[in-house]
Amino acid sequence: MLSMSDRTSSPPSIAALIRAVQLPRGLRAKGTPRVRLHELDRAKGMAILLVVLGHLVARDNPVGVTWYEPLRIAIYLFHMPLFMFLSGYLAFRMGTARVDLALWPRLVRRRAVRLLVPFLAFGLGTLLVKVVAAQVAPVDNLPTGFWVGLRDLLWDTSRSPATAVWFVFVLFVYSVITPLVLALPRGRLWLVLLAGVLYVLPVGPPFYLDRICTFFVFFVAGGLAAEAGRGWLRRIDAAWPFALAALAAVAVPVALGWIPFDWRVALWHFPYKWALLLAGLLSLPAIHGLARAMGRSAALEFLGRESFVIYLFNTLFIGATKAVLLTVLAWNATGFPIMAVALMAAGTFGPIALKGLVLRRIPVLARMTG
Questions:
Q1: Average pLDDT of the chain?
Q2: Measuring CA to CA, which residue among 171, 193, 196 is closest to residue 182?
Q3: Cα four-point dihedral sign 304, 117, 320, 357
Q4: Per-residue b or e along 154-175, where b marks 16 or more CB atoms closer than 10 Å to that residue's CB
Q5: CB atoms within 10 A of CB 37
Q6: Is 356 in a helix, a strand, or coil?
Q7: Average pLDDT in the 44-48 region?
Q8: Helices (H), the chain
Q9: Beta-carbon neighbour count of residue 108 at 10 Å?
């Protein structure tokens, strides 16, 4: 079976995020230099491996495999909050969150080009690939028609054929709204209050409102951490082992199936969102601190830099590899361990090879994929 489910996703690499939030000097706050934070690349490297692991199974679990689904649910309790934290951290650190209001219209135009164009391009591309691929192989999350899929891409986003691109759209919304809120008197307080209200607000999926409301609190947390500067770094350097242990105390019982969630029903609702909030907030000092404590890691930093292209194309390579392997292996408890290793390798390194061999040679695609 050609598996192309986009149920969950990861955001771009730190390099791509910096390009997404970083503006020319005229649109950046004064005194905000262009920097590269290798510790954040390491954090992204760890996170992107979890993303690929979460995409190994699309819809139907392998026969006799009961451990994978709860493990995946546990992973998604914290990995997307972590990605939003990193995005907020960079937006505030680079000064784009506090752009002068006189320059705000220009900011919106630039963010639209940087984020909305890739969102639409990859969303439409994924939809077209699925419609074409369905002529020769079964495809997961296939719309009943092209126009239905196009509608679901923006309106009924719970059924979107390209859910993986939601992060780019949501990041655009955050990047243009945050400067407006911060421009208010006591803007930082209003930003925190807005994030709290949005988190508990019951909203539906049109235009990814459910995700916009759910993850803004983590974006704001990243901004507060960036503005705390060395104070945040000192605290996480001391507290990350305890935060990591607490994160494990929340996530491990879910991974073992002791605390079950049916995320097809529970996602974006309480009590799942309480677990998401707790695990997500714990992951921020835990993973950021761990990435700082472990020192330089060429492998993780490389994966972090390449995580945008992995994010975009991992499900395609996983699906194609699975279709080939199913000709010789069964989708059950016996064949799955072997397939899992192959699918992890394909989902991680296939997109990197695609970028190096093809995408990098086409300027417009090279810019989109970082």
A1: 86
A2: 193
A3: negative
A4: beebebbbbbbbbbbbbbbbbb
A5: 16
A6: helix
A7: 90
A8: 14-21, 38-54, 68-75, 79-93, 104-111, 117-133, 146-154, 166-182, 187-200, 209-228, 230-255, 263-266, 272-293, 298-305, 307-325, 336-357, 363-368
A9: 15
Q: Which of 13, 66, 50, 5 is nearest to 318 (CA)?
A: 5
* Contacts of 10 by beta carbon, 8 Å cutoff, 6+ apart: 47, 48, 51, 79, 80, 83, 167, 307, 310, 311
Q: Enumerate residues 6+ apart whose C-beta is below 8 A from 102.
A: none
- Residue 259: other Cβ atoms inside 10 A: 16
CA distance 291 to 306: 17
Percent of the chain with pLDDT over 70: 87
Nearest to 223 by CA among 84, 111, 106, 108: 84
The Cα-based distances of 26 to 93, 97, 103, 360 in angstroms read 16, 14, 9, 29
Signed CA dihedral, 221, 222, 227, 233: sign only: positive
The tens digit of pLDDT for each residue in 54-101 reads: 889 877 889 999 999 999 999 989 998 998 999 999 899 988 898 888
CA pair distance 202, 213, nearest whole angstrom: 9
Those residues whose C-beta lies under 8 Å from the C-beta of residue 149, and which sit 6 or more positions away, are 127, 130, 131, 143, 161
Amino acid at 284: L
Q: Residue 2: what pLDDT?
A: 42
- Cβ distance 308 to 369 under 8 Å? yes
For residue 139, list its beta bridge partners: 2
- Between 22 and 351, the higher pLDDT residue: 351
CA distance 227 to 95: 10
Task: Name the pLDDT band for 324 (thresholds 50, 70, 90).
Answer: confident
Contact 45, 99 (CB under 8 A): no
Residue 12 has pLDDT above 70, yes or no: no
Please give the model's pTM, rounded to 2 decimal places: 0.85
* Residue among 145, 159, 151, 154 nearest 173 (CA): 154
Tokens of 50: 């979890």
Q: Which one-letter amino acid corresponds to residue 274?
A: W
